[in-house]
Amino acid sequence: MTVVRLVLEYDGRPFAGWAAQPGKRTIEAELAAALRILLRRDVSLVVAGRTDRGVHALGQVVSYEGPLPSLRSINALLPPEIAVAAAEVAPPGFSARHDAVSRSYRYRLWTRRALSPFQAGRVLWWPHRLDEEALHGCAAALVGEHDFRAFTPSQTRHRHFRRRIRRAAWRRHGDVLEFGIEADSFLRHMNRILVGTMLETASGSRSVEQFAELLEGRPRAEAGRTVAPHGLFLVGVTY
C-alpha cells in the first residue's frame, strides 16, 4: 500500500487542536473530510505532533496509506486556515509520528508597547521589562536530558517525564523575541509552561539557578504559568 506524507501549515486559532473531537472543529477532522471527498474513501491519519487548541503549525507532518492527492485539489477542499504545502509518496512503512527523530517549536513575543494589528493572534504581547540575559541563561540550562515533570499539568497520562533537548535559544528580531526549541518529543503544554516560567525569571520573580532546579523533576506547582497558545508554532519535524 502506498504511504503518503503531507506537510501542513495552519492557523490554529479557529480550531480545538489537531485531534478529532465530537462536535468540535479540529485540523484532523477538516483534513480527513477533504481527503474523503477527494479520494472517495476514509484514511487513517498519523500526525507527528498533536498540537493543542490555538497552536499554529508551519511544518506539521501527516502520513496515511492511500493515493497521493494533488496539491491544487486538496487545498481547494480545505478551509483557508489550513494548507497542504507539500505532498509526496513516502518510503514503505513510513510513520509521521514513530519515524520522527525530533520536533521543533517556536514561541513568539511582541515586545513593543503597542500591539501590531499584523501580529495579533500570532504573538504573545509582552510590553513588560525583561532581562534578556536571564532568558538566555534559562535556555542554556535546558539543553540536555532533564525531568520536565514541573512543566506539564499534574493530571496527565504521561508516565515518563524525561526529555532530551537538542537546542534551545532566544533570539530577537526587532520587536519580536522568539524562543526556539528542538527535542525528541514534548510533554503536554511543556513549551508554554517553559516560556511562562522563563518570563517570570526574566521579570525577576526567580533566579536562573532556581529555574534550573525545576529541571530535576520538581512538582508542577513550583513552575510558572502556562502562556497563551497563539504565540506557539510547530516549525518542523526531523526524520
UniProtKB/TrEMBL annotation:
Q: What is the lineage of its organism?
A: Bacteria, Bacillati, Actinomycetota, Thermoleophilia, Solirubrobacterales
Query: What is the organism field in this record?
Result: uncultured Solirubrobacteraceae bacterium
Keywords (alphabetical) are: Isomerase, tRNA processing
Q: What's the protein called, per UniProt?
A: tRNA pseudouridine synthase A
Reactions catalysed, semicolon-separated, are:
uridine(38/39/40) in tRNA = pseudouridine(38/39/40) in tRNA
Question: What InterPro entries does this protein's entry cite?
Answer: PsdUridine_synth_cat_dom_sf (IPR020103), PsdUridine_synth_TruA (IPR001406), PsdUridine_synth_TruA_a/b_dom (IPR020097), PsdUridine_synth_TruA_C (IPR020095), TruA/RsuA/RluB/E/F_N (IPR020094)
Q: Which residues form the Pseudouridine synthase I TruA alpha/beta domain?
A: 139-239
Membrane-crossing residue ranges in chain numbering: none
Q: Which residues form the active site?
A: D52 (nucleophile)
What SUPFAM superfamilies does this protein's entry cite?
A: Pseudouridine synthase
So what does this one do? Formation of pseudouridine at positions 38, 39 and 40 in the anticodon stem and loop of transfer RNAs.
User: Record's superkingdom?
Assistant: Bacteria
UniProt record, GO biological process: tRNA pseudouridine synthesis
